[in-house]
Every structure is written in C-alpha cells, then in structure tokens.
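@channel sequence for tomorrow's demo:
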Amino acid sequence: MTSDADRTRLLQLARDAITAHVAGQRWRDPSLDGVFARMGAAFVTLHAHGDLRGCIGHLADDDPLGRVVPRCAVNACSQDPRFPPVVETELAAIDIEVSLLGPLERVNGAADIEIGRHGLVVELEWQRGLLLPQVAVEWKWDAETFFAHTCRKAGLAHDAWKNGATLFRFDAEVFGEVR
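structure tokens (generated this afternoon):
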C-alpha cells in the first residue's frame, strides 16, 4: 500500500508533467528516490467535468514509477486516440487519477474476479484489451459484462473470453486528486 504522502507525490508528478507538456516546456524526470524509484505498472486517467478525458498506461513493471507516471500522464493528455490533446485552458478542469497495477494473474472466467477489486486483460493473438477495476464499478457491470466489454476494447467479439482468449486479472491501487 502506498502512503498518502507518496500518493500526493505521484499525483503532483503527473500534474507537473502534464502542465509542462501542454505549456511546451522541457520536462526533466525527477530524482528516482522513494516511491519514484519503485518499479511498477501504472495507468493515468484524466477527467474533465466528470467525463473521461484520457487514459494511458504501462502494463509492465519494468521501469520506475518516477518515469512511468509522468510518461503515462503526458500520453493521456496528448496521445489517447479517443480525444484531442489537452490545451492550456483545460488544465484547471482536469482531475488526475493514478492506478498502480499489481501483477497479472491468469483466470478461467467470471467466477475468478471480484468487481471493484480486479481489473481485466483479455488477449487473443496480437489483440489485447484492458479495463481498470473502477470501470466495472462506474458502469455497474457484473463480471460477465465486464469480460464482454474488455473483449470489445481489444477489438474482439464480446464472447471471445469464452472462445479461446487468454484472461488475466490484476489488483490496482487507485487514487486521485482531492479538489
């Protein structure tokens, strides 16, 4: 579990990276100490006025959070193909959420996940879809609906999870700005 102080540091790191990127300023990675040195997988989710505004992550735990979080934050504000890049006039309305991901664990089906605790990854050949645990809660999905939507995110048929796709779950520590 990440301390409140470290959560605050990670959220500030994400905000500073987004602000620098949107303003066209040069970004320098922080010193890799404390939580910033911890290897980890993470997603950064942006909301504006309660609506999704971007979400990008890094699934492998092969880089320190001091590099992963700002990179994901910048990509969430500028590279999410569902949205135009964030502009300076939007910065005050952007709320940042960070999800620190635990390891992937292979599962067989809906009975192996707990809504609100587990996120999902579905893979079939080169296609992969991932949904964070909070998505199922926000949309009030049951486990089978969560699997179906994760398949659709991968560009697969909604029932691919029953027909040959590989399924994984993961825990996530999710926290956001309190404003």
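heads up for whoever presents: The domain at 105-170 is CATH 3.30.1490.150 (Dna Ligase; domain 1).
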